[in-house]
Amino acid sequence: MGFFIETLIGGLMAGMLYSLVALGFVLIFKSSGVFNFAQGAMVLFAALAMARFSEWANAALGGNSLFLANLIAFVGAGAVMWFVAWAVERFVLRKLVNQEGATLLMVTLGITYVLEGIGQTIFGSEIYNIDVGMPKEPVMMFESLFEGGILINKEDFIAALIAALLVGLLTLFFQKTPVGRALRAVADDHQAALSIGIPLNRIWVIVWLVAGVVALVAGIIWGSKLGVQFSLATVALRALPVVILGGLTSVPGAIVGGLIIGVGEKLSEVYIGPMVGGGIEIWFAYVLALVVLLFRPQGLFGEKIINRV
Amino acid sequence: MKFRALALAAAVSAVGLTSATVSTAAFAQAKEQFFPVLVYRTGAYAANGNPWANGYVDYLKLVNAKGGVNGVKLSFEECEFGYATDRGVECYERLKGKGATVFQPLSTGVTFALTDKAPVDKIPLVTAGYGRSESQDGSVFNWNFPLLGTYWVGADVAIQHIAKQAGGLDKLKGKKIALVYHDSPFGKEPIPLLQERAKMHGFELMLLPVAHPGVEQKATWLQIRQARPDNVLLWGWGVMNSTALKEAQATGFAREKMLGIWWAGAEPDVKDVGAGAKGYAALTLQHSAEPNSKVVKDMLEMVHAKGQGTGPKEEVGSVLYMRGLISSMVAVEGVRKAQERYGKGKVMTGEQTRWGLENLNLDQKTLDGMGFAGVMRPVQTSCLDHMGSSWVRIQTWDGTKWTPGADWYQADEKLLRSMVLNASRKYAEEKKITPRTPEQCKQ
Fold it and tell me: Which candidate from B207, B215, B219 shows the least CB-CB separation from A270?
């Protein structure tokens, strides 16, 4: 029983981290109707900027204040993500107002390759470290209740808390602020939003910037866990089944979807994996998402699609 | 309109100029020994692929700086394949027609894919420290050269080392050893030997595959925590290795009980884990990091000091840089040996180089003279042994650097030979290959 609970908790915490990446997908889709395939590349790009700026700032400060170096790096990486948002709007999206969703999806594929290439060219393709003081050693709990206790990874626990906090802030932003409402209007219809005076260009920059900041936070957490290297871009693939399951338009859906996928893949790997040779957790997440699609094509929390004819 | 015409003219001129350059390069290449270099400088495995490629290319430059191979200069061309088998095969197809001397794909998957193509194209495949283990049998695998060691050698030495720590092979009975492996041909390669050893000594082998690229291992390490194996063998590449070490730390598994293959024992694998990986040990393919070796000093003096180094100077002498350098060296020595038979100062074909690789005899004096004293031991190949050497050391990460141990291991020759012959004969039957006889080998 103790081991089951430990696996469950591990899955929940991994799920929160998937949710963080999935949020980037949801934000952009919800606000502009674009399925942003470049979210993984944005995570990599932001993490690379953060890691290298931190390294350079730390060297410039003589290694005396890691906190200050990280703060400078965070601001610098945020500025880089703002530039990315501006460049995407100015050079890509502005030309594609009112185009088909498939066209916009293909464009984000192109942005993926550009960001991956430029990121590695500017910042390098080695493994870089982000040290934000996350604890690495585990902690044992409930040793009197379960034999061997329950092992909790402190780093994952803190990361899950940060993810939860970010989700809360984003929900408030979307529901309670004028900019959030404008974002939702743009998502419904580009032309209608323009006709009532919503500045489409500025809104797009804002939404890509918010997604960029989410990517930066995800990049810092994942980078601290795994090291900053190219594979961070593939973390986005872990978030795809999450958004399929939770629904592309729902922030709570990204969270619940993340938790279900996280728990599902860990339990499947541990309990079903050994029967079929192991290594099943990646495809199991997609199978789970596909099963949901069969019954609810819009995902668990997505808006039902109604087309008038 | 005027601008368009101007742009068109510029484009046409550029194409013309490029063609001229290419023609000149092709002409120049005809007099040079050409080495195609399959690399992955981008993508998930770039951090490990880069130092290997830099070492490989730098060594070719060093040979040129020393006058070439009996006067024959070496040329090379890189092809980026991102550790993807399909793209690796594409690179092979693109470069084979340029007079390729040898191919070294640095990928067991690509090696499997090219093993059937190499005999047709008559180009040797040098796979130093990777590839198909049974290709040691050169009577069947005429064109494969898994020089210096195969994964069966690595797996065998790993078990010997664990047994030595436990107090002998008989002490392995009842123990549990987990193999955490990259779910690819590379990661699966040691399994037959480990299963054989498990049968012989009565230990339990636990197989735990990790999907590419290996960034998600939480479930794997939860299983390890539950099963509590006595040792973990880490058969990873790239980010999988550092992730495994971080997960071991996060689940409280002692790093001293972990032993990695030589592809899980380089600086990129432990650098960002730092003190968290202290006590972790890995096999070496003879060499470790060798910043004080003569060949490294020559490299810094004759290549990097002249601004011709491929990568950063600080990387020269690191583990994977040395792996690339040594891989390059054995290929060059294959050419040198071939020249002894087919004419000094001439450009060798793939077929002639194959003979050279099959008759390599790098004794310690020769190696020391080339600057490899303390880096590696002798290599001698033959028709029946395309590996040439199976020396392995164990190095340990002390939190800041790798320190090689004093003991040298070798794979159990009897066990290895029997497994290699069984597998190679099976392959020969499947592919309808008649193994070469000792008489044919002499030709």
Answer: B219
Q: Where are the domains of chain A?
A: 2-295
A-to-B residue pairs, Cβ atoms closer than 8 angstroms:
109
Do A255 and A307 contact (CB within 8 A), yes or no?
no
**Tens digit of each residue's pLDDT (9 = 90 or more) over B171-197:** 999 999 999 999 999 999 999 999 999
Q: What angle do CA B73, B75, B80 make, to 5 degrees?
A: 160
Cβ contact B46–A137 (<8 Å): no
Residue B181 has which token pair? 């492996």
**pLDDT tens string A273-285:** 888 888 788 888 8
For residue B334, pLDDT beyond 50: yes
Question: Which of B222, B238, B252 is nearest residue A270 as measured by Cβ atoms?
Answer: B222
B136-183 residue pLDDT tens: 999 999 999 999 999 999 999 999 999 999 999 999 999 999 999 999
Q: What is the pTM of this model?
A: 0.87
What is d(CA B217, CA B180) in angstroms, rounded to the nearest whole number? 10
Residues of B in contact with A229 (CB under 8 A): 44, 46-47, 239
ipTM: 0.83
Residues of B with CB under 8 A from a CB of A: 41-44, 46-47, 50, 183, 207-211, 213-216, 218-220, 222-223, 225-226, 238-239, 242-243, 246, 249-252, 268, 271-272, 276
Spatial separation of the C-alpha atoms in residues B427 and B425, rounded to whole Å = 5
Q: Is the peptide bond before B213 cis (omega within 30 degrees of 0)?
A: yes
- For chain B, percent of residues with pLDDT exceeding 90: 86
Domains and CATH numbers, chain B: 32-150+289-391+420-442 (3.40.50.2300), 152-287 (3.40.50.2300)
Does residue B21 carry a pLDDT above 70? Answer: no
